[in-house]
Amino acid sequence: MTDPAAAFPFRPLEFQRLEPAEMQARAQAFLQDIARRRSVRHFSSEPIPAGVLDACIEAAGTAPSGAHKQPWTFVVVTDPEHKKAIRIAAEEEETENYSGRMNEEWLRDLAPLGTTKDKPFLEIAPALIVAFRHAWQIAPDGSKQQCYYTQESIGLACGFLLAALHHAGLATLTHTPSPMAFLSRLLDRPDNEKPFLLIPVGFPSEDCEVPDLDRKPLDQIRLRSKPNN
Fold first, then answer.
1. Which residues, listed in sequence order, are joined to residue 144 by a DSSP beta bridge?
2. What CATH number does the domain located at 41-203 have?
3. Does pTM top 0.90 for this prediction?
4. Which comes out higher in pLDDT, residue 177 or 86?
5. Which residues contact residue 164 at a Cβ distance below 8 angstroms, ignoring those fewer than 6 apart?
6. Where are the chain's structural domains?
7. CA angle at residue 154 from 86 to 124, to 5 degrees?
């Protein structure tokens, strides 16, 4: 029987084996750096150096995806009028959220973050990155093609993107003004692309403050499996 995989080319893995001491040093250095990442709602309007966002988005594109379909599009918005239109539409949805869609528990959980329906950062931040999930893809001949595990795939890519932006020295916010269909309309995206995440990105303002919060310690997020008796 012919192996189906034989019809597709493979190549040797490029992998660098590190000494244990360097592995530990790299792991700790990354932890110390990424631990400083915070969601920021107070941005400077200072522009982002050319090429930085492209490199970070290209890094996001290295994320794993179901059947390697890479079901994502990242739209970068820097035009002031486009950012203003997004803010107006987002605040319309957020007004509905804060005045009725969100239940009391949800509102209580948001209280420590100091969030409101007002989203000035959508205009102040020099760039907005809108991540779109491909529910399906369109082949060159116009036919519809399946995508797999699209939620998981775009989530992984966005995680890579946030880490890359932080590593490059930028501040970010994960904003989800649900429902987000207005982003498809304002950014003229095709029907197969569904808005997944809106990421304001830039430099924090000089007077930027963030909530005084703690993250779960390691012993609450990493458990060792136990053998069955």
1. 138
2. 3.40.109.10
3. yes
4. 86
5. 55, 56, 59, 60
6. 41-203
7. 25
